[in-house]
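Researcher: Here's the sequence for the chain we discussed earlier.
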Amino acid sequence: MTEETPGFDEKPDVPSGATPDDAEPQAASPSSSGEGAAPAGDASAQIAGLTAQLDQVRKALDERTADLQRLQAEFQNYRRRVERDRIAVKEVAVANLLTELMPTLDNINRAREHGELVGGFKSVAESLETAAAKMGLQQFGKEGEPFDPTIHEALMHSYAPDVTETTCVAILQPGYRIGERTIRPARVAVAEPQPGATGTGKAEDESEAGDEKDNGPEEG
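Model: Thanks. This is the structure I predict for it:
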């Protein structure tokens, strides 16, 4: 007959209505609650790190965007400058060519004035003038227009009683321009009002006024 060892058959206290297996989760619950607090702190640190990285990426993106905009503006300025230089070079080349043709154009004008522009020479001359006009050449200078030193070159000077300002009375050689650029001024003969003409007219007017005043009382 064996003796029972006291204490080996004893079971832990279990609340009424609970199974013996419920005792083990209760014992493990304190440790599990402590392990759950650590991941929450790690998540906050990760969010902060990602936010900082996002700010850096946004800053880098803004810098690259500004660089791209600056390069685009510089390219646009370069393209406009190249186009402007190309047009200027073309205008200079055309002006040089037309300058060489001016003596021929002057001869054509003189032949036309003397009635010698006839036959085949007339056709060739008109074709040359048409080609020059298509290249932008414009002729200017007319008799009777006011003298302008910026577009006229006075080769002859005289006085005339029928002008009130310095006037072009004869066009010796027409002027030529391309657009707003004058490549040769018009060579002209100018006439100015006669010295003292204005003063003489004023004296005559005053004399006539005095005569009328003197005649007034006599008529009365």
